[in-house]
Amino acid sequence: MSLRASLLVQAGLNAARAGDDRVAGDLLDEAAKLAVQVGDGHDHHRTAFGPTAVELARVAAALELGDGPQAVARHEEAIGRDGRSRLSDDTTAPKSSSGHTCEGTTASEGAWMRCGKWKGAVLGTVAVLAAMLFTGCEADGQTAPKPVDGSMKEVLKEYQPRFEQRRAALTAAAAKVPEKGVGKASCARTLDPRPEFIWFDHTSKVLDSYNSPDKGGNVDIVATAEAGAPEQIVDNPGSTLNRFAVPPGWLVRGLWITGPQGPLGTNEFKVTSQYGDEPYLGVEEDPVQRLRKILDVGLHKRYVLLYRVTTFTFPDAEGRDVVRADVFLADLEEGDLPCQLVADGSRYGTSGGPVGWVSLTPYEDMQTSLQIHISDKLRSLTRP
After folding, report:
1. What is the dihedral of CA 278, 284, 285, 290, to 10 degrees?
2. How many C-beta atoms lie closer than 10 Å to residue 299's C-beta?
3. Are both 171 and 294 inside the same structural domain?
């Protein structure tokens, strides 16, 4: 329950950052209901989730939405009328998983999720902002990220030619996608290595393949219409997009930062000293080595699933929501499209969805279910 509620809070904060106060409020209200059942003073699954965590998340959400008075009011409610903390009285200042002290900065997104139990009260919205200004720390307890330095740029220059080869291969593959729809799901040849599609989870951003690229699969996914211009791909598509899309994986993200709009060009896709840092698993502390590992993960994606949405009914209250897509598997090294299939996605019912999946919105349901269907079909085609 704490894990599910923690995801609800994180989704609420993401909605607040996107400026959607209604969705943010709904998600945090849902988390608050679960918080009542969990209670304060617990640390189930190292989430430190409880009613106070939700109240602090409301403070962070109000700040993201630009509502200063509401943030202050929420903060006062969180610490109690007498100004005393309702948080843990641990005497040890908590740290994030990367070792940075989190004291005085727990009002921000993710701090309560990463730092376990808190020490004392949140210092207050003004104090938190002051701490950020005078200590050089961000609100999540991390040191403020430094711009990409010369050594990181050298890494990007080193990897750029290989990513440009991938870019050219991706563009060429998209041009070969037939205009007619997919008939029967099939593969024209045996694939070696076998494709393994593990979709990008934008909610948790857990990079299981961080130190072992093969564990994260060797397949990325891109909309056919955007394959020739990866910079146009939406980072975290949601229901406000008014069309259907799924988050891109590490190949596309590598194209972003090594391409003309990355630090070597216009710098629209920025790389800082904290690029690829928390909340990734097995994170490399050295930013240069961390960047190398992330780029290696992207280059490990030999295959790309090119999807073309043929049906998309926008989710509504009656549950009339479905997405269907023609999907073509591109082999970027051989330059062909050896496999094709049709996949569907839909909203999960109250008991539907994969094990461990927390349904946050119908749109996310559709993203997840479509990619699961693609993965299952691709396995059945390539593993007879």
Report:
1. -90
2. 16
3. yes
72 and 128 assigned to the same domain: yes
Which structural domain range is residue 360 located in? 150-382
From 103, 135, 167, the end of a domain falls on 135
Look up residue 126 and give its two tokens: 């003004």
- Please, are residues 173 and 247 in contact by the beta-carbon 8 Å criterion? no
User: Please, which pLDDT band fits residue 51 given cuts at 50, 70 and 90?
Assistant: confident
d(CA 137, CA 142): 6
136 — alpha (psi -120 to 50), left (phi > 0) or beta? Answer: left
Element (H, E) at 221: strand 219-223
pTM over 0.90, yes/no: no
Residues 350 and 221 in one domain: yes
Cβ within 8 Å of residue 284, ≥6 positions away? 210, 290, 293
- Using DSSP, state whether 128 is helix, strand or coil: helix
Which of residues 146 and 264 earns the better pLDDT score? 264
